[in-house]
Amino acid sequence: MVFSSLRVKSFRNLIDGLIKIESKNIFIVGNNGQGKTNILEALYFCAYASSFRTNSDNEIVKTGENDFSAYIKFSQKFNDENKFSDILVKSENRKKQVFINSKKINDRKELLYIAPCIVFCHDDLEFVSGSQERRRWFFDQTLSLHDPLYLDDLRCYKRIIKSRNNVLSEIINTSSKNSRLLDTLDQQCVFYGLKIMEKRQKAAVFFSKIFSDLYREVTSTAGLSVQYSASWKYNDENKILEFLQKQHSKDIACGISLTGPHRDRYIYSLNEKEYTNKASTGQRRILALLLRVAQASHLVKITGKKPILLLDDVLLEMDGEKRRRFLSVLPEYDQAFFTFLPEEPFLDYKMNDTLVYYVKDGKLYEESG
């Protein structure tokens, strides 16, 4: 899918109005704090009804306002399938509503497969250097972009773990045994957990091959891989249930579920040795960028659907050769939005179809600046 225009209202510092973006490549140029990233965020917000920068919609609304919205129209010129004309996401009185083709939807999951956006930003370093929770989030997102059943199973599993933790807390606070309910939750937990584990394992093998090839091409270093380490060491339902039964006393003592897919780990290895602790800041940055390239490539290979790329100052910290190599491994895409500082050599990357905008104080100006 290709976006033809974006209209925002009270969205961060952006000036209310329409932005025409009907081109395959769009450059957004401006100094820090002028609104470059806000434009990418507005596009992402339309695609997923959430932000890649914050979990709180209250941080998005312009200072002094209560309501905000972002609205995209799809190009009828570049899109092969004209099933979708527009998406509107608005927040009124702190209640978010989503409309596709002017029809309100009840589950944001319906957005995932319309115009998948892959965002590249500085916070992606968390998927390399951050907690295992952030790594799981990245790989769960990778799977959810093409597998709605995986997302459903993950949602169910999380609800069950929440209920199980509540029961464990209740047992501590009331000295209640409540073992029957705990056994029931164990069965539900294993049912969905095994589904998640199986898909994570298969996806990790496939993803690792893509990621390894990309890393070798950009850095000339071979042997990098992604390893998935499941919290449960069995793939058999009865063995896991037996293990959970033995684990009850530890779970009760801590008041939380100590094992399961919510504790799975992803490890980046170089020649079968853990890599991220030894990698330099620059190497970790390359890892993070290539994770996003691999995510987009994975989507293309699995679905044949080309993503929209949102690249926020990704070339800033690279030397000329690494920039060239990085741009050469970008996957097929329907549309790409790049942000640049004015002093960067962005004109070197401009193509015939590139639309260049300059942004200052939340307002966009075309080519002439």
What can you tell me about this protein's structure?
With about 375 residues, the chain is of the alpha/beta class. The protein folds into two domains: about 180 residues, P-loop containing nucleotide triphosphate hydrolases (Rossmann fold); about 170 residues, Up-down Bundle (Glutathione S-transferase Yfyf (Class Pi), Chain A, domain 2), CATH 1.20.1050. It has eight helices and 15 strands. The strands form three sheets. Strands 2-1-4-5-6-7 form a six-stranded antiparallel β-sheet, with helices on one face. A six-stranded mixed β-sheet has the order 8-12-13-3-14-15, sandwiched between helices. A three-stranded antiparallel β-sheet has the order 9-10-11. Helix 4 packs across helix 5 and helix 5 packs across helix 7. The longest helix has about 40 residues. The chain starts with a strand and ends with a strand.
